[in-house]
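Human: I would love a firmer grasp of how sequence relates to backbone shape in proteins. Could you go through the record with me and say what the backbone is doing? Here is the record:
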Amino acid sequence: MNAPAPKEAVIKMYESRADIHPREVKGRFASLRWAFVWLTQLLFYGVPWLQVHGRQAVLFDLETRKFHLFGLTLWPQDFIYLAALLIICAYGLFLVTAVAGRIWCGYACPQTVYTEIFLWIERRIEGNRSARIRLDRQRWNGEKIAKRGSKHLAWALVALWTGFTFVGYFTPIRTLGHEALRFGLGPWESFWVLFYACATYENAGWLREQVCKYMCPYARFQSAMFDRDTLIVSYDVKRGEPRGVDKSGARATAKGDCIDCSMCVQVCPTGIDIRNGLQYECIGCAACVDACDTVMDKVHKPHGLIRYSTGNALAQGWSGAQIRRRILRPRVIGYGVFFLLIAGAMTTSLVLRTPLKLDVIRDRGAMGREVEDGLIENVYRLQVMNTGEEAHVFRIAVAGIPGAAVAGDDTVELKGASARAVPVRVRADPGHAKTGSNHIAFTVTAQDDAGISVTEKAVFIVPK
């Protein structure tokens, strides 16, 4: 008799996502998070509407290849400032992380901020944590459709306004607004508004903690900047264990301060249990700290069972003063020095920057020609860029060959933050120059301010 065939076993390599419904929490860190929400969103939504010198204060005008930053105009030639800014941001993030862990993630990261906003909308429409869980399990009916529909409509409106504002940093937002009201947005503006709206809607409304846990690279390499003196959200095992209460509900003598209420888990936006130690999913938001302190008040125990602390402080029982004395350590000093050096160099360069740029292109179609009076003439095209906000009349001069001069009009007028290509003819006596190439230099100077001046080298050709 043949043996029965073994039943097939299905092994799942991917665990289905369990919906996380964090409980609303109040406390000093929750208030701090909302302060950052207000601050970041007032800046993000408000800055594009600011005007400086009759122009949008912050505008990355890709069409004209000019970046306007509160009266400062940067051109493609100023790309070095963008590179320096990115390096400064990176070292600033490294410095903050080495000192205080992932507080950027917990308080100011756009993913955290918009998730907090979307959760607030969800709570207002669907109710508290228990009500949302019940609604998830409830069959589809009129109530569920109304609540879910209202929530997603509110999310979509916030996402659309966010996408519109983001595009307003690259297209003048007032023009963008007028076109939107007339339903006259161009195809590219419409695409990018919808693109960033969909990204906001999906990331903050649907993916939420999945972005922090699986998509954000920062969660993966943050440990390289941590050490035993980095402030992290920590559970005091010595004080909390063993956890629980006796059957009568009173505090048991043999138990620790943790009553195993799981409030720290219920308020966590990424759904982890901080009592299991530091985990890469922890974003350092301290929601568990507020929740635990609230419970400690109810059981008449001191705050701090879960708190911002360091590995060394927990192991050795250090006080707050001892923790603060360990802030200035070699890693932090190194990040700080690099941050200050690069920031100082960039600031100095911007302060000393001349608001005038000059590019010289010689007309290669004519190597040099003889004109009246036996003079040799070369033709150039000068790209003059006034990077300041004020209009100036600039004078063009040439040096390098005795007697060399600009033929014709040697002035050019430019408005603020504008550029102009100027054809220039330079004539020189061949008796004062050698046959072949001769080094010359163009100098462009503002007539009303001699301090605004720039010099660029060029070559003058004397034919054989």
In short: Residues 13-353 form one domain. The mean pLDDT is 91. The chain has two domains: 13-353, 356-462. Residues 142-167 form the longest helix (26 residues).
